[in-house]
Amino acid sequence: MTAADCLVTKAGPGSIAEAMIKGLPCLLTAFVPGQEEGNITYVTDNGAGAFVPDEEPEKVADKVAEWLSDPELMLKMSTAAQRLGRPDAALDITRRMCDTLLDLGIELEEVGASAPGELAEGGKAEAAKGGGSDGGGYPVQQPPRPGPGPEPSAGVVDDELLQSLQSLGFSRQDAEAAAKRSPTVEAAVEWLEAHES
């Protein structure tokens, strides 16, 4: 997706989420009734794309041509898409789930791991309370717990990452935009290169 200018797809949530993270306007052409209709509304109401039914391929092609011939519109939709993107969503969900388990008094611990964050041989870990699985037969492993101080939240800029990007010649504004979306210098540079004007 990094090389694309827009995405033409059905209204599947995974494709839309990836496109939003990459700042790609979405031209949605189909949906699963009852499951994906809301995705169309979400994308179109937020200015990150449009819906043209795939039964009208000429109109789909016309819409793509219209977008690609209007750089200002593309920039506007790309900015809207980036605003909707949640690059840390999986990590945030995992943290919330683990925090909920801990709040319920279910302490998680690694069993037989040789280093923090590493599973024991055979990939097994267990909960101190709760039988060693999540109830579905899957082993439970302790997530890394944050150190003292507040947990970073989405969109918080890592000063060290920001300084590294600026030392590479990126403007503060560009460096901040990339640092909010990327955990490493490499990922931030890739994002910046993909979004160069």
UniProtKB/TrEMBL annotation:
<dbReference type="InterPro" id="IPR001296">
    <property type="entry name" value="Glyco_trans_1"/>
</dbReference>
<dbReference type="Pfam" id="PF00534">
    <property type="entry name" value="Glycos_transf_1"/>
</dbReference>
<dbReference type="Pfam" id="PF22562">
    <property type="entry name" value="UBA_7"/>
</dbReference>
<feature type="region of interest" description="Disordered">
    <location>
        <begin position="117"/>
        <end position="159"/>
    </location>
</feature>
<dbReference type="InterPro" id="IPR015940">
    <property type="entry name" value="UBA"/>
</dbReference>
<feature type="domain" description="UBA">
    <location>
        <begin position="156"/>
        <end position="195"/>
    </location>
</feature>
<feature type="compositionally biased region" description="Gly residues">
    <location>
        <begin position="129"/>
        <end position="138"/>
    </location>
</feature>
<dbReference type="InterPro" id="IPR009060">
    <property type="entry name" value="UBA-like_sf"/>
</dbReference>
<keyword id="KW-0328">Glycosyltransferase</keyword>
<keyword id="KW-0808">Transferase</keyword>
<dbReference type="GO" id="GO:0016757">
    <property type="term" value="F:glycosyltransferase activity"/>
</dbReference>
<dbReference type="InterPro" id="IPR050519">
    <property type="entry name" value="Glycosyltransf_28_UgtP"/>
</dbReference>
<feature type="compositionally biased region" description="Pro residues">
    <location>
        <begin position="141"/>
        <end position="151"/>
    </location>
</feature>
<protein>
    <recommendedName>
        <fullName>UBA domain-containing protein</fullName>
    </recommendedName>
</protein>
